[in-house]
Write a structure and sequence with these properties.
Elements: E1 5-9, H1 13-24, E2 28-31, H2 38-47, E3 50-51, H3 55-60, E4 64-67, H4 74-87, E5 93-96, H5 102-114, E6 118-125, E7 135-140, E8 155-159, H6 166-194, H7 198-208, H8 210-215, H9 223-242, H10 248-261, H11 279-291
Parallel strand pairs: 1-2, 1-4, 2-3, 4-5, 5-6, 7-8
Antiparallel strand pairs: 6-7
Helix pairs in contact: 1-2, 4-5, 6-9, 6-10, 6-11, 9-10
Length: 292
Amino acid sequence: MSLDRIAILSPGDMGHAVGRVLVERGARVVTALAGRSAQTRERARRAGIEDLNSLAAAIEAADLVLSILPPAAALELARAAVPALEQAGHEVLYADCNAVSPATAGSIAAVVQDAGAKFIDVGIVGPAPGRGPDTRFYASGPAAERFRALDAPGVEVRVIGSEVGRASALKMVYAGLTKGTLTLYTAVLVAAERLGLSQELARELSESQATAFDRMRAVPFLPADAGRWIGEMEEIAATFDQAGVTPAFHEAAAWIFRLLERTPYASETRETLDRTRTLEQAVRTFARELGR
């Protein structure tokens, strides 16, 4: 089976970067941009991704479908893809690459498999291709070995078993630390601001917790992703709950992202971020929003 025909749904921040790598490798990469924003269309154009307009046309043209979108929309996309998967004149691999819980991955797998397609559970770890070390795609499920065909410079595939849910679970526990830590930093800084202790805390952190304080420099730019990451925190909370661990940490993390989504900075994208914004300015804005 060839994996040289690939549909990416959708070519957002991560999806278009993955598509660019695959196009550079010689694959035909397609998508469906009906109703999508001008920004998404421009990202797809820059990456060399071909717009076939409709979901049905994109799936019919593909051997492999990569679902890469906000987790809250993952199951909805799979359901929308059912008619096209059922009518495809060839075998289709459907890889859900979203930050979802093992339970959600299982629900998506059931929808896809009932439509006659093969399902691969995928968890993406790391920045989008081209922004640092190789992006790692952890894959699991009965068809996961076939996903190795995508392994190449820029995209590293690691197969971690034949059980659907394993790759999603790994993504959940990993992001539970990385994004969860960012929300803890935000909560600490906003609390200090509300208590009138921002300057004193900053001095102490710079002296005794320099590494953590340096990582807090990412906090001003979280609102651009907050809307997408609310659902991810909810999926992590569900994963922890399933494992018998308190979901409260990441329910609180979702609360933080809801706060950030209400700020004026949430209208930015990663391309339009105001990089001159300081940590102090951002935290003051977050605290004001909380006070409303």
